[in-house]
Each structure stands twice: as structure tokens, then as C-alpha cells.
Specification:
alpha/beta, D-Maltodextrin-Binding Protein, domain 2, 2 domains, 9-stranded mixed beta sheet, two-stranded antiparallel sheet, Phosphate-binding protein PstS 2, signal, lipoprotein, transport
């Protein structure tokens, strides 16, 4: 009982410290808590590529130089809650998933907004793709046609993502059956909204969404476990060679996030790279 009480008190004190306002001296001396996504995450793959954390070695092989001291989270929600609960944390998420529990910092002076991505001012963006193999079922194709229609792309825009230009008018075939969609936790939120909107135009269809990561989604599509895979990155050569066909359904920004109490407002691309490779370890080094 005594041990449990001590644990509860310790947890309460930790929560209070995490929620306490940040004093300038504290943040300057504090170690940066680096939070990253798991291997296989499309968001991680895009992040390390866009910020130069991934580099080629002498053999021409890509190497992920994310610091070994980084804590790894396995989905967008856990990433956000981890940063929200740690005053000194830094992480990254899909821009479309951003809410007021965390703060997105400017990158190279540009705010992470849809408008700035469209203008090219904010350069940290990546595609949202779906992937299929061979011939898909009639109902799966009907759902895909809806996603790529003006109506589907309106759903994309309403939820904070950037629509694609290549759309076609949609009329439901009324196809019946189940569609299994699996993969990226970053794509999942907008796919859930597309599923809801599609149900209104074709109530005969059932769409099931299974959330994991981009690589698992592609593997599941290759293996025939799902009809449609979700990836928050471009497909790998090995995936296309295995028979997958990729279709872009949206463009998304990657927001670099910190705790709301952190005074940091703006980072350069080089500073983000330096933090994630472990070269910069103290907040004071980027606040000067």
C-alpha cells in the first residue's frame, strides 16, 4: 500500500511539474526530450527525409540518424499526448491532426498552415496516398471514385488538408459489400471523415478502417488482408515491384510541435535536424 501511495504521489508531482509555467532559466538549462515515430511510420519517413535527418552513407544506402535517445511513439495521438504532457518535449505530427493541446512552431519563419503549404512558403509537406493491388472489388472502386471526386476532395479540405486537382464527377454505382482500408495513423483521421460522407451516398457499402502505419498498410495490401492501403509517404520501390499501385488523395503538412508552455516559436530546418540527430540537446542552444 505504501509503495502504491508513493507511486501515486510521484505521478501527481510529475503531472504538476509538467503543467507548471516555464521559467526562462528552466527552459534554457533543460534537456530537450526528443519524441519520434516508430520505424515504418510514413510520417517518420517523410520527416527524416525533409529535414535531412536521413542521409546516404558511403555505400549509397539511406541511414536514419535519429538520435538513440529519442522516445518512440506508435501513432499520432500518442505523439500529441506525450508532447502535451512534457514541458521540454518536441515532436512532429500531421498538420491536419493539430489541435490546441500542443503548439506548432514556425519553420524557417513560416507558419504551418494550408495557405503557406499551397504558396510554397512552408516546405514541410508530403502526400497522402492510397494503394491497391490488381483489380479491386466493385464496392472498393466505388469508394475510391468518391474519394477522388469533387465531393470527396471537399471533405479533404474541410478537415484541414490540401485537395488534389485531378478529380472526376462521381455517381455511386450502389455497389454492396465491405471495404477494408488499413495503414497510416496520419491518414486515418481524414479517411474516417471520407467514410462517414461516403455512407450517405452509398449506404449499401461498409467501410472498415484499421489503423497501424504506412508500411504495415502496404504489406497488408500486398498480402490481400485489406482492399486499400493508406500511406503518408510515397511508395517504396519494393512495394510497387510487389504489385501496388499508388494514388494520391491529399497533401498534408508536417507540423513540428512543442508543449504549449515552451517559449520556442520558431526553429530553422537546421535546428530541427540538429535536435533530431542529437547534436543539440539543450533548449538554451536554440533560444539564444
Amino acid at each position: 500500500m505504501r509503495k502504491m501511495t508513493g507511486t501515486i504521489l510521484a505521478a501527481g508531482m510529475a503531472a504538476a511539474l509538467a503543467a507548471a509555467p516555464v521559467m526562462a532559466a528552466d527552459i534554457n538549462e533543460a534537456n530537450i526530450s526528443v519524441i519520434s515515430r516508430e520505424d515504418g511510420s510514413g510520417t517518420r519517413g517523410a520527416f527524416i527525409e525533409l529535414f535531412g535527418v536521413e542521409e546516404k552513407n558511403d555505400a549509397g544506402e539511406k541511414v536514419d540518424n535519429t538520435t538513440v535517445d529519442a522516445s518512440v511513439t506508435n501513432n499520432t495521438a500518442v505523439m500529441m499526448s506525450t508532447v502535451a504532457g512534457n514541458t521540454y518535449a518536441i515532436g512532429y505530427i500531421s498538420l491536419g491532426s493539430l489541435n490546441d493541446t500542443v503548439k506548432a512552431v514556425k519553420i524557417d519563419g513560416a507558419e504551418a498552415t494550408v495557405e503557406n503549404i499551397k504558396s510554397g512558403e512552408y516546405k514541410v509537406s508530403r502526400p497522402f496516398n492510397i494503394a491497391t493491388k490488381d483489380e479491386v472489388s466493385e464496392v472498393a472502386q466505388d469508394f475510391i471514385n468518391y474519394i477522388l471526386s469533387p465531393e470527396g476532395q471537399a471533405v479533404v479540405e474541410e478537415n484541414g488538408y490540401i485537395a488534389i486537382d485531378d478529380v472526376a464527377d462521381y455517381t455511386s454505382t450502389g455497389a454492396e459489400g465491405k471495404v477494408v482500408v488499413a495503414g497510416s495513423s496520419s491518414v486515418t483521421p481524414v479517411m474516417e471523415k471520407l467514410k462517414e460522407a461516403y455512407a450517405e451516398v452509398n449506404p449499401n457499402a461498409e467501410v472498415e478502417i484499421q489503423t497501424s502505419d504506412s508500411t504495415t498498410g502496404m504489406t497488408s495490401t500486398i498480402d490481400g488482408i485489406c482492399d486499400i492501403g493508406m500511406a503518408s509517404r510515397e511508395l517504396k520501390d519494393s512495394e510497387t515491384e510487389a504489385g501496388l499501385t499508388s494514388t494520391q488523395i491529399a497533401i498534408d503538412g508536417i507540423a513540428v510541435i512543442v508543449n504549449n508552455e515552451n517559449p520556442v516559436e520558431d526553429l530553422t530546418s537546421e535546428q530541427v535536424k540538429s535536435i533530431y540527430t542529437g547534436e543539440t540537446t539543450v533548449w538554451g542552444d536554440v533560444l539564444q
